[in-house]
Amino acid sequence: MMEVKGVIIHSIPKNILDKFGQYGLKRWLELISPHARKVFSSEIDQEAWFPLKETLIEPMANIAQLFYDWDLKAAAWEFGRLSADVRFHGVRKLLAKIPSATSLINKAGEYLSTHYRPCTIYVPVSEPKFCVLRISQFPELDKTTEYRICGWMERALEITGCKGVKVDIVKSLTNFQPVSEYELRWK
Q1: CB contact at 8 A, 184 and 153
Q2: Which of the residues 20, 83, 146, 157 has the least number of beta carbons within 10 Å of its own beta carbon?
Q3: What pLDDT score does 58 carry?
């Protein structure tokens, strides 16, 4: 069973509250599974591990249903971006000192591979203004998680000062290809 670290999911209720208000958060909590409701209604230990499907995939589908007219890509992408904002809040000046965007993506590959398990994520191509991030092992990878990763990487690059960021999924384990690959371009 795939697991996700609490640091990945802890900001979901706050982001719902900020974007859709108390009523939106209440509606979402009523819609998710009892187990997920218990997780999201209490303080989430950011170092703990949680079942991926029940605490990320299904709750994101509920967000898409309630607030994005069933547009899973839009919901997951935006919540990935919001997750990067939360992750890098207060360290933006530090991020601006990272020597290059490619260094950030290399670190992002390391970061992501320690927050989903089991998985293998690495950066096989790292050039000025272009990177490829590859996922070679992720047994329960789904579109929700792929889009969240896209949004997270896009926003992380923007936070470091990159302009014109473009993230494309060019190969996907969800399409029965041997790997998932993200191409990242920026100015």
Answers
A1: yes
A2: 20
A3: 97
Q: Pick out the chain residues at pLDDT < 50.
A: none
92-185 — its CATH code? 3.30.1380.20
Q: Which residue type, as a one-letter code, is found at position 82?
A: L
Query: What is the model's pLDDT at position 42?
Result: 95
For residue 88, what are its two tokens? Answer: 């890098």
Record the pTM. 0.90
Helix (H, G, I), strand (E, B), or coil: what is residue 47?
coil
Residues 112 and 109: their CA atoms lie apart, in Å, by 5
Burial annotation 49-84 (CB, 10 A radius, 16+ → b, else e): ebbbbbbbbbbbbbbbebbbeeebebbbbbbbbbbb
Q: Report which DSSP code applies to 182.
A: E
In the chain, where the domains are located: 3-88, 92-185
Would you state the pLDDT for residue 96?
54
